[in-house]
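Supplementary notes (optional reading)

For those who missed the lab, this is the record we used. Protein: fructose-bisphosphate aldolase. Length: 340 residues.
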Amino acid sequence: MSEELTQIAANMVAPGKGLLAADESTGTLEKRFKKLGIECTEASRLAYREMLFTAPDLEKYISGVILFDETIRQRASDGTPIPELLARKGIIPGIKVDKGLVDLPFFPGERFTQGLDGLSARLDEYREMGARFTKWRAVIAIGEGIPTSQCLRANADALARYAGLCQVHGLVPIVEPEVLMDGSHDIKTCRWATEAALHEVFDALTRYRISFKEMILKPNMVVSGTDCSNQAPPDEVAEMTLACLRRTVPVAVPGIAFLSGGQSDVTATANLNAINVKAKTLKTPWTLTFSFSRALQAAPMSIWRGQAENKAAAQQALVRRARCNGAAALGQYDPGMEEA
């Protein structure tokens, strides 16, 4: 199993490819649909995601798709199970396995991810359905007096226990400790919090004997807070992000797939490109790519709007964004590609 997981992890971060995170919960997708006047039903959610997954040439830039529990159980309009539909295109099916966030008792403003209970049985079921990798998201907020060491440790421990269960059950875990952009903090504060979180995560992964070569790290980029008056440019984002990663992430990890974390689609692409340009000069040991949700889906969703006649244009918008991010993952993105 070890060789298989190592190969899957390597394929997930193949050069010039990244991951499409399509694992939004029903509630989250309903909020996004509502803003665009799209009715949110099981049928409309399936139609939307099938539109994404069947986009022509998507497999040239997307190595894997993270699915939601509802989606992995659905069939496409031709009767093909969604995981099989993806696999036929050469795209690896994955699945979100955490059960969402709850408040961390006695630590105001901090949260903890639940879902370890019953996880072993769910992993076997998902693998039988065709999933080959998983995702678990921990959330770290920045604010007055936070993050606390207790919050960092609690989430790191859960991530490590999740990762161990996944590897035992034949699935590659994506380990996602997200330091949120929310707030007025500057980029230096984000770097401090991100570095602290990653130190705790890899300490826990080591204690739980996780195989680094059989996992993918999905961190935030080191960026300024959303409400910060001094937004760091891509070059500074690249410098801070790589400095943080070089101090915390073991060489054995095959790839780092950044989340977009609320950045606009073009900003996320520009920052990813700057990171890879600088990474070449530093000769970093990992593949540095993307695992985006809104930064890939915002444009196609706004074009699609639940209308079948908009499908082709929405798919073109998705593939354009995927192509731009694929280029950024190689440090070859040019803003002129946005209009190509």
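If you only remember one thing from this example: The chain is about 45% helix and 15% strand.
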